Each structure stands twice: as structure tokens, then as C-alpha cells.
Amino acid sequence: MLMLCLSAQVLRAQGKDSVAHSPTKAWLMSAVVPGLGQAYNQRYWKIPVVYGGFVAFSYFIQTNNFRYKLYLDAYDIRFQMEQLDKLSEAYGALEKQLEDKYPQLKNAPANRLQYYKNSYRRDRDFFIIMTVLFYIVNMVDAAVDAHFFTYDISNDLSLNWQPYVNEGIYASSPQIKPTVGLNFNITF
Predict the structure, then answer these.
(1) Which residue, of 3, 72, 113, 181, is most buried by count of CB atoms within 10 Å of its CB?
(2) What does 119-130 look like in DSSP terms, one character per residue?
(3) C-alpha angle 68-113-55 in degrees, rounded to nearest 5
(4) Which residues fall within 8 angstroms of residue 170, CB to CB, at 6 or more apart?
(5) What's the pLDDT tens digit per position in 86-142?
């Protein structure tokens, strides 16, 4: 990998920009190690963006998973409490357990705990899906960038226009008037 990048830099320094660059190789490199395809394409500034995205998604997944487990446990305790008689010893033990583990949730009803549990689970699953999509975008970016690696952007890209009048076959007929328009020439 390092040798390939160095040889590409040497050829560019010599003025030979026609280095064979494989989009498949860039795609596979990004599939194995995210950001490696961007390094292969010499787009080093994209590597921190890729890893920053994965760090951000990991943070959101971990935070939502932690809160999901917290509300799941509190909901399970509250649900068990609602199945028991309030005067029983098991109810008192569960109430003490809820108060010791989650003092801020001791008065929350089961349906509210269930709502938050489902909400955090849904958010966690959403960020897992977004992470997979971000991983796919990373690979697609590497492949597309490799396609355009040797794309020639020369100074010969131009658009010329001029007025156009067609008098041709209509000149002999007095009822039909000549057509007027614009003629565009694109050079690339």
C-alpha cells in the first residue's frame, strides 16, 4: 500500500498522471478497513471524517443502549410490582429494589417506563442502521473517487455560442420566413 502510494506520487511528480487506479480495489480496501480506500485515493482529509462519523454513531448507540437497559430494568421491576398485592412482602422488596437502584424513577408508572424503554430501543436501532449506511457510503465514496482519480480537467472546457439564421430552402417561398436561433458548441 505504501509502495503504491509512493510510486503514484513519483509518477505524478514526473508529470505522468495516467496511473492505473482501480475502483474495485478502493472499494475493497474501504470494506476491509474504513478509510483505507480514501488513503488509496490520496484523499487523506476524508479519513478523519470517516472515523469521526463512526465515533459519533458509536456514542449514540452506546448512550441509547445504556438508557434502554436502565428503563427496561425499571419497567420489569414496576411491572412485577403491579402484579402483586401492595401489602405483600414481595411488593415491599421490589419497591425497595426500585428505590435503591433508580430513585428518580420510583414514582413513575409502568406505561411511562415502557414508553421510554421502547423509545430508547428504537433510537438505538436507528443509529445501528445509520452506522451500516455510513459504512456503505464510505465504500461507495472510495469507489467513485477512484473512478475520477485520473479524470482530466483541462483548460479546453468551453462553451461557444453564436446566432444562427436558417434561410436555406425557404428563401424561394415568400410565405415561409427564415428561422432564427442560437448555435451552441461545447468542447471538452
Answers:
(1) 113
(2) HHHHHHHHHHHH
(3) 20
(4) 176, 177, 178, 179
(5) 888 888 888 888 888 988 888 889 899 999 999 999 999 999 999 999 999 999 999
Query: CA-CA distances (angstroms) from residue 47 to 35, 37, 147?
Result: 5, 9, 18
| Phi, psi (deg, nearest 5) at residue 132 | -65, -45
Which band of pLDDT confidence, cut at 50, 70 and 90, is reported for residue 183?
confident
Among candidates 91, 90, 95, 98, which has minimal Cα distance to 70? 98
| Domain extents in the chain | 2-6+21-147, 158-187
Q: Determine if the pTM surpasses 0.85.
A: no
d(CA 50, CA 44): 10
**166 DSSP β-pair partners:** 179
CA quadruple 101, 104, 106, 112: dihedral, nearest 10: -110
99-120 in b/e form (b: 16+ CB < 10 A) is eeebeebeebebeebbebbeeb
Residues in the chain: 188
Return the SS3 of 15: coil
**DSSP for residue 169:** G
